[in-house]
Amino acid sequence: MLVTAPVEQLLTGFQLAETRCSFCKTALQEGDTVSAYAVQYAGDESWSVPRLYCRTCRSTIEDPTLGATELLAEGRLGLTMDATTQRTSLTLLGIERVAQSAPEDGRATL
After folding, report:
1. Does some domain include residue 71?
2. What is d(CA 64, CA 79) in angstroms, rounded to the nearest whole number?
3. Mean pLDDT on 78-97
4. Entry pTM
5. What is the pLDDT of residue 108?
6. d(CA 39, CA 45)
7. Is residue 107 part of a domain?
8. With CB atoms 3.0 to 4.6 Å apart as the test, which of 21, 29, 65, 81 could cross-link to 54 if both were Cys?
9. Does residue 58 lie in a domain region?
């Protein structure tokens, strides 16, 4: 079953594994403004956020990936707490879409 949602809803609260800028490697923390690159490959049901960028290193989608839906969004980092486990996670908040590419927008590479 295909489920669609706005980018803001899709990425708000997304738990992040990486907490450094993908370009300059600056440590990112709660309250920082970031750009998040999210991708969903054709045939996959889940999204991933493999790259974050600090305010200085903001990025764009210059070369879309064939067969992938790519999003670039801006927002800030916040903490979400699981009351049962008493664990916190760094998550995305206040998301606004900056750029998007569709699976057919990319080009094949040889």
Report:
1. yes
2. 31
3. 92
4. 0.83
5. 59
6. 11
7. no
8. 21
9. yes
In this structure, is residue 13 part of a structural domain? yes
pLDDT tens-digit readout, 35-85: 999 998 888 888 899 999 999 997 777 778 888 889 999 999 999 998 999
- One-letter amino acid of 24: C
Residue 107 predicted with pLDDT over 70: no
Distance CA 41, CA 57 (A): 25
Instruction: Decide if pLDDT at 2 tops 80.
Output: no
Burial class of residue 71 in the structure, from the number of CB atoms within 10 Å of its CB (0-12 exposed, 13-18 middle, 19+ buried): buried
User: Distance (Å, rounded) from C-alpha 8 to C-alpha 19?
Assistant: 20
Averaged pLDDT score across all residues of the chain: 87
Q: What is the number of domains present in the chain?
A: 1
Of 59, 48, 67, 51, the closest CA to residue 106 belongs to 67
Report how far apart, in Å, the C-alpha atoms of 57 and of each of 20, 33, 52, 98 are: 11, 11, 9, 14
Range of the domain at 35: 7-102
Quick count: other Cβ atoms within 10 Å of Cβ 40? 16
